[in-house]
Specification:
Blueprint: E1 14-18, E2 21-24, E3 29-32, H1 35-38, H2 47-59, H3 70-83, E4 89-93, H4 96-111, E5 115-119, H5 128-132, E6 149-152, H6 157-164, E7 169-175, H7 188-200, E8 204-208, E9 232-235, E10 246-250, H8 269-284, H9 287-303, E11 310-314, E12 317-321, H10 327-335, E13 339-340, E14 342-344, E15 348-351, H11 359-372
Parallel strand pairs: 3-13, 5-6, 5-7, 7-8, 8-9
Antiparallel strand pairs: 1-2, 2-3, 4-10, 9-10, 11-12, 12-15, 14-15
Helix pairs in contact: 2-8, 3-8, 6-7, 9-11
Bound molecules: pyridoxal-5'-phosphate.
Length: 374
Amino acid sequence: MKLYDVYSLFDVNIVKGKGCKVWDEKGTEYLDLYGGHAVISIGHCHPHYVSSISQQVATLGFYSNSVINRLQEKVAETLGEISGYEDYSLFFINSGAEANENALKLSSFHNGRTRVIAFNKAFHGRTSLAVEVTDNPKIIAPINNCGHTTYLPLNDIDAVRKELEKGDVTAVIIEGIQGVGGIRIPDATFLQQLQQACKENGTVLILDEIQSGCGRSGKFFAHQWAGIRPDIITVAKGIGNGFPMGCVLISPQFTPTAGQLGTTFGGNHLACSAAQAVLDVIRNENLLQNVNSVGEYLMNELKAIPQIKEIRGKGLMIGMEFDEPIKDIRRRLLFEEHVFTGVSGTNVIRLLPPLSLTMNEAKEFITRLKRALQ
Ligand SMILES: Cc1ncc(COP(=O)(O)O)c(C=O)c1O
């Protein structure tokens, strides 16, 4: 059997990782400024993470959601403390798309409505509702195209208010920082007005923090820079550092009913041991502080590089926009300078390194980037 060919692959086989570095099968070392697509939060193969998962799999890898799971309770407690959302409840799932899927279902159960507002360039995943609120017609199959979504320009509060006043919008879904859309940050005032407008119109505000959360922006959630408290927050990627996990943080105004949501694998013992280790390391190693200082250094250095048209971002979620397509620069970075980076569209390179990126590694990246741009 061959693989279903949907990915455009680099001709590199990564077989080992440690911290912010990875190695291919020939032993070549790479600096990882991509974090496997914003997934690696505490660094590859962190010793605490490795020992937690190893011990857990040797003890109990899985049991179903029909019995008490104290590991889930512990993750919920720690996530509440570290994020400042102790009064919210937590529902576990396996991926980002599923987290958004369940957030949208909860909204619709809650207010009985079916229309959703999403924003231009939004990406929320590839399952049925998640893809329907994603602004990319190429990945919406006809079966997913059910007319639930109205897309509006980011930061246009008047346009949002006009739609909300019609009274049929179940939820507004917005990324803390747009990732796939090219690292676009919603204005703080826009988010504050959005929260107010949602409240006034009985609409649920869902913050998709799947890429921008778990410390990547320098606060635990990117929306916390605007001082808002959404009704639902979705999390995935960095929470498991590579182990598949998604989470839905749900405000106290929602009342659960038996059987309303469910999953086989979500919140299993192994996934919880991974998430617990991630949260422990973020807290014990002061990774938010590291994100802020290394992120600031990178932003300043990048702003001084004349070939880059615009730098956008917060913490260790950074977009470098060029006047021309970045395909060749990215290839040179990978094959000549041995640096992994991400991409958004044709002209933006996305940096999403592990939150543990050291100042020395950041300096090394800047040196290699400058060489690649010569
Ligand atoms: C903002 C955002 N939402 C949702 C998703 C979907 O997550 P997953 O691929 O885990 O389903 C992604 C993935 O890139 C994302 O960046």
